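One-letter codes give the sequence; backbone shape is given numerically. An example follows:

. . .
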Amino acid sequence: MASSTKVLVIGSSSLVGSHFVETFGDKYDISAIGRKNIFGDGKLLSSFERIDLEDRERLAKAIRSSDAEFVINYAAETNVDACEAESGNEKGHVCLTNSEAVALMASVCKEEGKRFFQISTDFVFDGTNGPYSEDDPAGPINSKIGWYGYTKYLGEVKLNKIAPQGSCIIRISYPYRAHFDLKTDFARNIIDLYRKGKLYPMFEDQIFSPTLIDDVSNAVDFLIANSAEGKYHVASKYPTTPFLFASELISTFFGKENEAEVKRGSIVDFNKVPGRAPRPVRGGLRTDKIQKLGFLPKTFEDGIRTIFKASTSLGH
């Protein structure tokens, strides 16, 4: 039976936001704001409004006029290298989207008594001492945090100042899912490159916690049910390296005998290339807090098995 809870999703066509709509469109009364409506006139969305997040007046009006109890922001500029091209420009599109729009959403939600959930990232940390817990300090900008991470960090800082109560920050890391036509992700990019014989060496010296997007959607549902506030991390239950993740991925999708084809690379060397946004070297997210609340994220191995089963059932 459908819940009477009303949810406004901002960024419903995004890699992560679209999964929540697909998964819980029958449970919640979901309306959406975004760049495009990928769900058409189906039953998953009760309404959709096309709004550019830089249009502050329309964005604020849409949130105010919504009768949603929860507002979830999945929208962000996430191409870390493209974001780096605007480094230092706090009036640029990236900062306006990842920081200023978040501050506006938080302010309007506070005024209207709505609960605000912000999807954030492990890139707010400099990657020198991970995996990180929610209590570890994020930012500030330094040579190890790129412009993407810094603008997401600024969004968090502004949200915490404006609406420390009634808001929830959910940090994720290298999200992946079984299928999505509009954008690839970390896991499917590895699979596609391997099929083409173009898979680059995978970092064996980077610590990270890839996030199954199914877990993100289920965690948001769980946190809504708990009227959660504060910061929560949703990522692989245990950290790993891109090399081990890719090896498990290739073994699962193409057979264990092909695992040896995954070559070893170094993120230290990668980060030395001019023009690239720095990636966290010793990153990753600890998930103890949400586990203590009762939500158990999958291990990366279980996450890979999940997308394999889903891909097999769809014939991908």
User: Anything to note?
Assistant: The first strand starts at residue 6 and ends at 10. The chain has a mean pLDDT of 94. The domain at 6-184+211-237+285-298 is CATH 3.40.50.720 (Rossmann fold). The CA atoms of residues 249 and 255 lie 9 Å apart.
